[in-house]
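RECORD TYPE: inverse folding
INPUT: structure tokens
STRUCTURE:
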């Protein structure tokens, strides 16, 4: 089953007309460059650097345990005098679990992000992206454990759950502002980013024809 969701729901019970393997390829795999580049442009990110995937301990075989790093500069809008206009963010992305070598039966990924923003040394943003075949998650609601097993036939749709947590290492003033800002920041599969993903898939499919 999937791990428990993180406290803040970014995209619970979302369904995409793409298989889990295709979602993985477009978001984290070899075909991810066009989609991620579009997100970086939409979020006005600069100085983007994406590391290569490496191996590491995971919860299963195949893709599980792979990690990579990603860094970028994000603009800030802090309504205070002399506030910084941008911050540098460093992400560590890890595949916690994956079913099949291409994630055909689903996958769970976690992103941990730290920044040099004001009070950035006091918290870490964690994002969990869980994707399973839509047919295997029928009847499951937000926050429930979902079966992590491929259906007997190749799936053509995915159930996506994306949740977030802001973990503080010490008490800080303005915690609520930090948490609300973090919920809109990670460039992952939130609600407003599903359409660009589908458009990227359509362009990729057309180019193969």
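DESIGNED SEQUENCE:
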């Amino acid at each position: 089953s999937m791990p428990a969701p993180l406290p803040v729901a970014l995209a619970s019970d979302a369904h995409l007309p793409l298989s889990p393997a295709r979602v993985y390829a477009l978001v984290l795999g070899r075909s991810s460059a066009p989609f991620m580049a579009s997100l970086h442009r939409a979020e006005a990110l600069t100085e983007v650097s994406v590391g290569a995937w490496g191996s590491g301990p995971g919860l299963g075989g195949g893709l599980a345990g792979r990690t990579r790093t990603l860094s970028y500069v994000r603009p800030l809008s802090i309504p205070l005098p002399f506030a910084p206009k941008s911050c540098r963010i460093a992400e560590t992305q890890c595949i916690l679990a994956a079913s099949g070598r291409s994630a055909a039966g689903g996958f769970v990924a976690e992103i941990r992000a730290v920044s040099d923003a004001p009070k950035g040394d006091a918290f870490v943003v964690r994002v969990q992206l869980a994707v399973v075949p839509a047919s295997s998650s029928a009847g499951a609601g937000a926050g429930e454990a979902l079966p992590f097993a491929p259906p007997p036939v190749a799936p053509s749709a995915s159930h996506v759950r994306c949740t977030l947590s802001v973990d503080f290492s010490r008490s800080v003033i303005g915690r609520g502002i930090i948490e609300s800002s973090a919920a809109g920041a990670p460039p992952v599969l939130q609600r407003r980013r599903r359409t660009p993903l589908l458009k990227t898939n359509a362009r990729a499919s057309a180019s193969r024809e």
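NOTES: The beta strands are 8-16, 46-50, 67-75, 86-98, 107-115, 123-133, 158-168.
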